[in-house]
Amino acid sequence: MNYSRDLATPETATDLQIQQDRLNLHTALPAKVVSFDPSKQTVTLAAQIKMQLSDGSGADIPPLVDVPVSFPRGGGFAVTFPLKAGDEGIAIFSERCIDGWWQSSEASLPLDFRLHDLSDAMFIPGICSTPRTIKSFFTGGLSMQTLDGGTYIRIENGSIKIKGNIEHNGDTKQKGKYSSTGIISSDVDVMAAGKSGKSHKHSGDSGGKTGEPE
Known about the structure:
- The protein is an alpha+beta fold.
- The chain has helices spanning about 5, 10-25, 100-105, and strands at about 30-35, 40-45, 50, 60, 65-70, 75, 75-80, 90-95, 120-125, 140-145, 150-155, 160-165, 190, 195.
- Among the domains are: about 25-130, CATH 2.40.50.230; about 135-165, no CATH class.
- The chain contains three helices and 14 strands.
- This is Baseplate protein.
- It comes from Rodentibacter mrazii.
């Protein structure tokens, strides 16, 4: 005997309808990046939770395409990073159609009557499964780093630590002491107290001037 078929009542029918509506309501799902478009800052995603069918089997959710990505930004500043296939995160689904806002950046009425639909996904990268957690997690402060920890900028209480080669374009001003355990080099000149390291001269023992450093 099938209870929902043979002993159905108006109440059970209502329960089944509510259950079906809940199955069609999407809020958030873990997802993996399939591809990333840096010009539009959108991704194609593969949802990592399957749809459960009425017979108990599972089916893949179709790929989520043209999904806007959340990068930390505000006040004229942004933090960006290139997303790669396989990167994990969470897809959230707007309660209303986002097409009008997404295309115009203006408040707009929904262009469609859909609710909590898969086509209205937005992606927040970073939330990950246990096998993809950050190894040797830094607990001493703020860290911007490669996943393997080989290169980083870390802010601790009272200090900033950098590991990796640095390429700087622009002027530099230093207040306070500066020390180095390596070589400081310049392909033009080095000035110290207004004197050129390339062309300075010293007074000679007999009253003249020495030649420039070679």
